[in-house]
TrEMBL record:
GO terms for molecular function: ATP binding; shikimate kinase activity. Pfam families: SKI. One of its GO terms (cellular component) is chloroplast. InterPro entries: P-loop_NTPase, Shikimate/glucono_kinase, Shikimate_kinase_CS. Keywords: ATP-binding, Kinase, Nucleotide-binding, Transferase. Belongs to the shikimate kinase family. This is Shikimate kinase.
Amino acid sequence: MPSVAQIFKVHSEAFFRDNESSVLRDLSSMRRLVVATGGGAVIRPVNWKNMKKGLSVWLDVPLEALARRIAKVGTASRPLLDQPSGDPYTMAFSKLSMLAEQRGDAYANADVRVSLEEIASKLGHDDVSKLTPIDIALESLHKIESFVVEDTAVADSQTESQSQRMHTL
């Protein structure tokens, strides 16, 4: 299977996004699975239509932390961040900042937001890089549980209101 970078290079970003949308559409009819999209999946409303058939979670990572991680491993596998020259951290941070500004409203459509800065603060860390995958997973599950409980309570309340109106009639 070709990498994302190869697909962008050989075909185009639009080709990749079309295929990404197609896969999300197909996956949206399935149950009991986790789909981890890339950051660009949020830019198409049709993708949100499909993602909203389930529960969407936004892992909100500070741009500085993302830029450090990307600079450390390189940008060759990330076609929108790949820069031929310059300081890797500065280039990644600059591009990530631009993408975050373009996509920020779209990310906010997620049902649940898991902020790594909030987790780090709660655990007494001064840097999100000190978080473990377990720290992030536990907070994600807690946030998902809170969303589901709240969403269920709202649905129950609406059903009760409708029932009372029907009974009054």
